[in-house]
Amino acid sequence: MSTDAIFQVIGWAGQGFFFTRFLFQWWASERRRRIVVPGVFWWMSLCGALCTGVFALHARNLVFLASPVVNLFIYGRNIALERSGRSLGRGVLLPVALGVAALIAIALAAGIKPDDPPLWLAVGTVGQFCWISRFPVQWWVSERRGRASLPPAFFWISFLGSLLLLAYAIHTGVAVFIAGMAIGPFLYGRSLHLCYSRRGREEAPLATPEPAGGTVS
Questions:
Q1: Within-domain flag for 10
Q2: Whole-angstrom distance, CA of residue 202 vs CA of residue 122
Q3: Structural domain contains residue 19
Q4: Which residues make Cβ contacts (< 8 Å) with residue 115, sequence separation at least 6?
Q5: CA 83 to CA 122: how far, in whole Å?
Q6: How many domains is the chain built from?
Q7: Does 182 reside within a domain?
Q8: For residues 99 and 72, is the Cβ–Cβ distance under 8 A?
Q9: Distance (Å, whole) CA 25 – CA 71
Q10: Please, what sign has the CA dihedral across residues 112, 118, 120, 122?
């Protein structure tokens, strides 16, 4: 198997983790008729970020490298938060700072620079900004509540970011990136419907964690 084929497998594996995590979350939410977060969601996010980050680094695409690198630290923090329930207090911005520092260090070390036309670079950058900022928003709410949560704002930002990144991915012509963005608007749109359905408003506007192991009762 060629080196490029190996990285393709890694990239598709990452998209598989990302896609499957939201299937688990969506199915659990459909069962409860409100937004819930199975514990496995964060572990699959962590694996997906590692794989897609490696593929984006191989593809030398700075736009698609940003999200997995920065969010990797936030996924890890959510796992720790689920277990401890204790806020970082004054160190609340530490995971985001570490993620940004890691992204800058990797981009400089690998000599990766954006080479898209200005319009597409703007579309990709704004989309990736939305894509990255959704988890700091989620994580900020989670720190305040003392548990991992997915607030409605998370899905609004995800919906907008996925549309922009889908357009950018189509521009790149890279199948792994296109597949990773293609189904997002549908999943996030459905999650928003659950957030604002009458039953969802009556029961809970924010996500509640599943029992340990992520099983759905």
A1: yes
A2: 40
A3: yes
A4: none
A5: 39
A6: 1
A7: yes
A8: yes
A9: 18
A10: positive
Structure tokens at 140: 């900020």
Using the structure block, give the residue that is written with the tokens 């954006």.
Answer: 114
Question: pLDDT (tens digit, 9 = 90+) per residue, 116-167?
Answer: 889 999 999 999 888 888 777 877 777 777 776 777 888 898 899 989 999 9
One-letter amino acid of 122: A
Name residue 209's beta-bridge partners.
Answer: 37
How far from each other are the two terminal CA atoms of the chain, in whole angstroms?
43
- The verdict on residue 216 lying in a domain is no
| Per-residue H/E/C for the chain | CCHHHHHHHHHHHHHHHHHHHHHHHHHHHHHHCCCEECCHHHHHHHHHHHHHHHHHHHHCCHHHHHHHHHHHHHHHHHHHHHHHCCCCHHHCCHHHHHHHHHHHHHHHHHCCCCCCCHHHHHHHHHHHHHHHHHHHHHHHHHHHHCCCCCCHHHHHHHHHHHHHHHHHHHHHCCHHHHHHHHCHHHHHHHHHHHHHCHHHHHHCCCCEECCCCCCCC
- What residue numbers bound the domain in which 94 lies? 3-209
pLDDT tens profile 49-73: 999 999 999 999 998 999 899 889 8
